[in-house]
Every structure is written in C-alpha cells, then in structure tokens.
Amino acid sequence: MRTILSLNNDWFFSTSPTSFAPPFAQDTHQMKPVCLPHTWNAEDGQGGGTYLRGCCVYSRVLCVPQGAGACVYLEFQGANSVCRAYLNDHFLGEHRGGYSTFRFDITDICTPGGEDQLTVFVDNSEFTDVNPLSGDFSIFGGLYRDVNLICVPQAHFDLLYYGTQGVLLSPQLEENGDARLSIETHLVGGSGSSVRYEILSSDGQIVASAETRGDSPDTVITIKDPALWDGLKGPMMYSCVARVTGLDGSYDEVSLPFGWRRFEIDPEKGFFLNGNSVPLRGVARHQDRQDCGNATTRQQLDEDMAILRELGANAVRLSHYQHPQYFYDLCDREGIVVWAEIPMLAMPDNESLLENACAQLTELILQNLHHPSVCFWGLQNEIAIAGECFAMYHNVEKLQSLAKKLDPTRLTTSSNLNSVKNNSPLNYITDVVAYNIYFGWYYGKMEEYADFLDKFHQDNPRVPIGVSEYGVDANPSFHADNPHVKDYSEEFQAIFHETVYPILNSRPFVWGTFVWNLFDFGSALRNEGGTKGRNCKGLVSYDRSLRKDAFYYYKAQWVKEPFVHINSRRYAQRAADSMTVRIYTNQPHVKLEVNGEFFAEQDSRTVFVFENVPLRSGENTVTAYAGDCTDTVTWTRVDAPNPDYTYIDPNPGFNVKNWFTSGSGEGNLFPEDRFSLMDSIGDLMSEPQAAELIETYLPQLKNNTLLKVAKMFSLFEILNHMSSSFDEDTVQELNKKLTELHKEKPGRRESSLLSI
C-alpha cells in the first residue's frame, strides 16, 4: 500500500552553501530554519530592481520509516529553476525546469529506521539552456511547492515516468455518444502482477471496470451515455482508480479525476463545447502573490479560484508555465476551460534550449493529460520579440509535432506580438493562434482592436484567432476626472475595458479573450505607475484584498447573480461642486439617490453614467439601487484637489513631442544616416561605440533582460517602457552622442513612439 509523508517541515536554508561538492555536511547553525513552500525572493522578487538569482541550499534530516515500503521516492512538486539533490553524499539527480513535478528513487540509498542527510541545491540563475530565458515576471527561486516522501510496494506504478502517477488517461467521446477511456500504464516490478481499473461516477458508484496482467497493463474501457464535463454549465467528473497487486499480495493504488467532453473551434463561430457555442471569456493568471512570491498554499489557491468564480470568467490562461496540480483540479471541479503552457518566451537558435522546452512540454502534457478542463497546450509566448527567423519556425514545428504525438486530442496554440505579420509562418504552425495586443496603452488607440482583428480574419479566414492578452496598468491610489493613457488611474483602466471588451465580444470569430491579468503580479524589472517590481494590469490587487473597478465591469458582463457597484469609491475627496457617477451592474435599471434624496434613474446595460451629480460641502452619501441590490459610497467635497490622487511621471520628457518645442525637427534629432534612440537594440548593441555609450549613460540597463530579448525594439521604446528609471537630460545627451556615429547603411526601424 502506498504511503505519502510530507517533508515540508524541519528544513534549514542558506543563500551561501558551504560546499557544492561532497561531503555535504552543511553547518545548520549558520542556516535559517524554514518550512515549505519557500522562496528566497518573497521580498526582493517583488520590490523592483535586482533580486537574488543564484544557487541556494536546503538541508534536513530524512527519516524513512522502517517497513514503510519496498521502494522509496522523493517527490518535488516544484523547484525553481534547476534542482540538484543529494542523500548523504550520493547524487540523486538533477531537474532543469522550475514548474513541474519530478521525483528521485532513493530505495537503495536511504536508511529505513535511521537518519540520512538530504541536501538540495536550487538555482534560479539565468541559464542559457533552461526556459524561461527571461520574461515580464520574477523568477522566484526555491522549493516553493510541496516535497513528499512516497513509499510503495515492490510492484507499483512508475513514479519516475515524467513526474506522472504512472497512469495516463485519454478520455474520448465516440460519434455514437459512447465514451472511451484509453489507459496507458507504466509499472515497476509488475511481472506476475495483476491490475484492476474501476471507473467511479461523481457519487462514488462503480460504472465500469477492467482487469489486466502486469506484463500488458494497457486497456480501453467503454461506457454508454456518460455525463459530460460541460464547463460552467455542469462540470461532471469521474475518477479512475487503478490498483496493481503483486505476487505477495501487496498493492499500489492511485486515483485520477477525469471527465468526458468534446470541443472544437470554428474559424468563423469560435469555441464549441459539447456541440454548443461557448465564447471563451477569460483571464490570465500568474501564480505568485504579495509577501510570499510563488510559495503559495492550497488555501491561497482556493481563494484565487473563488475570486475567479466571483468574476464569472469561464476560461483561464495559466501563464506562462505549469501551475500547481491542485489548481488544475480546481479548474476541473469548477468548470473553467484551461489554456496550459510552457515558459517558452524566447527562442534563439539554441538546440539545448529547444531540448529543455521539449522536456517541459512533455512533463506539462503527461502530468495533466487527465484534466478535462485543459483544452489548449500553449507552445510559445512572444518569442518573436527579438525578430523572426527560420530556426524559430523549425523549433515551433518540433514542439507542435511533440504535442500532437503526446496528445492528439487537444488543440495547440501560441501567443504572438502585434508586430508578427498576418502572413507570418508563426500563424500557421499551431492549431489556433492568439495575439497579445495593447492598443491604447503601449501604442495606438483602443479602437484599433477592431481593425486589427478584422484585417487578420480577412487575411486568414481559416485560421482561428484569439486575444491572449489585453489590458492596462492601474494603481488604485491614482484617480482622474478625465482619465487618459499612462495616468495609471483606476478610472482609465475601467474606461479601457469598457471600450475594448465590446469590440472583442462582438466578433464571433474571436475564439477566446483573456484579460491580462486577473491579479497584479511580481515583475522585478518594472518601475512604473508609482509601484516598483510589479505589473499592475490586474483586475485585483497583488494581495487579493482589493478589486479594482474594472473587475466589476466584467462581473456585470459575466455573472447572473444580481449586484451593483459604484465606481471611483477610492477617489474619496472631490474638489468640485458636481461629479459624474459611474455604475456597473447586471441589472437593467438603476436609481440613484444623493444625500437621501432621489436624483435620477436609468435603463441601460452594464454601464450606467449619471452626469452632474451635485456635491455639497463636506460628506456626501450616494446610493445606487438596482433591483434588490444596493451600493453606497461616501465622497467628501474639499476646497482643493488632493495631489496624492495624481500620478506624477518623474521623467515626463519621454514624450518626444516635448523635444520638438525647441525648434528642432525629428530629422535633426534622429538623422537617418546616424545612430539614435530610434534604432533597434540589436543594431545599437552590435556597434561597439554605441554599446559603450549606452553602458556609460545608462548603466542601469547593463543587466536588464530586455536588452537580451527585445532586440527588435528601439532603445526609445525600451526607455519609454521604463521611463521612471531615467532622467530626460541624460537620455537627450545620449541621443546627441549617438547621432555623432555614422551608419554604414542608412535606415532605421520606425518606432511606434509609445508615449505620443
């Protein structure tokens, strides 16, 4: 019988290992006691600037119970990014990739009934052969998920088979409505053993069973008229209990949840689940949260799912890596369609990196094969940020072939930058594609989503198109009566989503839309909008305590349970005699009351706007009534605007328009035959004199990952993205020096001039 013992307690940790070679007698008196899950970047990984990326060490005494099992395994459910484990002085193995489950066999090394020293080195350095190379999120290091000791009998399911349970389930629906469950089983010590499978319904009743021999354990089980996993409508689940019994009568048993469903995407009509049109309206999610980084608990995962369900989304993109197994279980249970993906965020011509991507994809697919919620395998995200090349296409094709070999039943997808042209080969490799689009924030206008999507669909009518990211940053401390781009106000974020979502939702050919992001998340490279080390595009704050106004906009779109929400409640002090009150609700009628007196009422849908709401001196109480729901906000009229509500850009000169006021034209600032800020990072860094100037004037960029991956972007775009880190005078002087350098061949890439 299988025994699982938690090893989360009694660890010692140090950022400075005393030795990297045997013997590993770490001086625990110099180490910090910790419990798992643990990350050493809980603070610096979300504080902005540099954070600790290197090799750290965990150590503890391991006591394997006498007689616990014939075979003993160590299980790590996540160690970021490269893990090397030793028992006493014996090297157990290495795992390269920070997001999947892996195990080591310690049967012949451990001392049952005695004590062994377990030493684990974890390294979150920037490796050239481990994904992700970089990204707009912090690479939190550590043993940040559970570690277990698993004891099993001689005959058992193979726990070393790519981190799976040794049992792979492939549920499929036949054309006649019958349900097939193909079971692929991997055994250790299975000679002479027998294997029994039982299919249980959600109420625990056995609906089918099968028995096989250990030397040929694979089988197919068929049942008639199955209850279907049908998303939010009805996520009906089954479970498969597999038991292998050895010649000595001992047995090993595992239970895997699964479900039957059929899905497809029509290039004109979008996503279908079990024959019914189900437009996927979802969010993306990163796994970290404030004060604990990626070292989250089950309770916190439950809280995240509760917020997701409160929002009413029916899909989630689990960005940009494999998430905890428990969260896939939650998605199964709640009926949330899942886009699962690997951390392939850059794809240079690097065979070792491709091999690592293949390894992570294999683990992602095989470890999650049984989850009915998973409908998409994501193969890449924005890999063309440094430009496209033939090697890139070839490598994505390899990932595509591997995904189809491992699992032909699901769709593959990818996320492209808006700079990827409609006819790029990247749009024809995976089954479906999606784009990360930021019109109205990083470039262009919000209304351009319509033209972009329509043009893609016109050019590629048989290629299903989705929107994998869209959104804007919002700091709930900032507010505006007249919100505009890059003011980081809660109001601008709300208006952005009010504008963009109807564009997306009105196009049935868009198979899925995913707000970026459900939660704010850690990104050490960021310093903008008054917040360091954080991407603030979330609908919910990093600590999950605050729902921004835009959250309620989507709730009004997606949730049937009645509610009403008054916006801008944190804009508590108002220096005007009247204001505009904006309200979100899923009810058709709203009545507004001001200081206990009726003001006005409206019939509308989702968004209700009341103009010229009067404010008297001092406190004002405003109440909205929508059906049986009410919401009340108190605003205080003051004599002068509160400056704390307004974001002050520390370096406002990054609006190039301001540079033209001196009388200089763009041609003088950025001559075609000279280098300038408008040249690409790749071109500038390949010119020794230009690279030296950048290092001299902008030493902050020396170790910035953006310089390594964003070679196609102009230096101006990079600086605009990080404007709060640089002053205008320095940047203008750098541009002046760059323009003294002649180009061998005239020409530069056009910049989008993000802040114009």
Explained architecture:
The protein is α+β, with helices and mostly antiparallel strands. Helix content is 19%, strand content 31%. It is globular.
Helix content: 10-25%
Instruction: Calculate the terminal CA-CA distance, rounded to whole Å.
Output: 66 Å
**Sheet with most strands:** 8 strands, parallel, barrel
Oligomer: single chain
Write a compact overview of the structure shown.
With 756 residues, the protein is α+β, with helices and mostly antiparallel strands. The protein contains 14 helices and 40 strands.
Give the topology, please.
Elements: E1 3-6, E2 11-14, E3 32-34, E4 55-62, E5 71-76, E6 82-87, E7 90-96, E8 102-105, E9 116-123, E10 147-152, E11 156-157, E12 167-173, E13 179-185, E14 187-188, E15 194-200, E16 206-213, E17 219-223, E18 238-245, E19 251-258, E20 263-266, E21 270-273, E22 276-277, E23 280-285, H1 298-311, E24 315-318, H2 325-334, E25 337-341, H3 351-367, E26 374-381, H4 390-406, E27 411-417, E28 433-436, H5 448-459, E29 465-469, H6 490-505, E30 510-515, E31 521-528, E32 531-535, H7 549-558, E33 564-566, E34 573-574, E35 578-585, E36 589-594, E37 597-603, E38 606-614, E39 618-626, E40 629-637, H8 656-659, H9 666-669, H10 681-685, H11 688-697, H12 706-709, H13 715-721, H14 728-738
Parallel strand pairs: 23-24, 23-30, 24-25, 25-26, 26-27, 27-28, 28-29, 29-30, 34-40
Antiparallel strand pairs: 1-10, 2-3, 2-4, 4-9, 5-8, 5-10, 6-7, 6-9, 11-14, 12-13, 13-17, 15-16, 15-18, 18-19, 20-21, 21-22, 31-32, 33-35, 35-38, 36-37, 36-39, 39-40
Helix pairs in contact: 1-2, 3-4, 6-7, 11-14
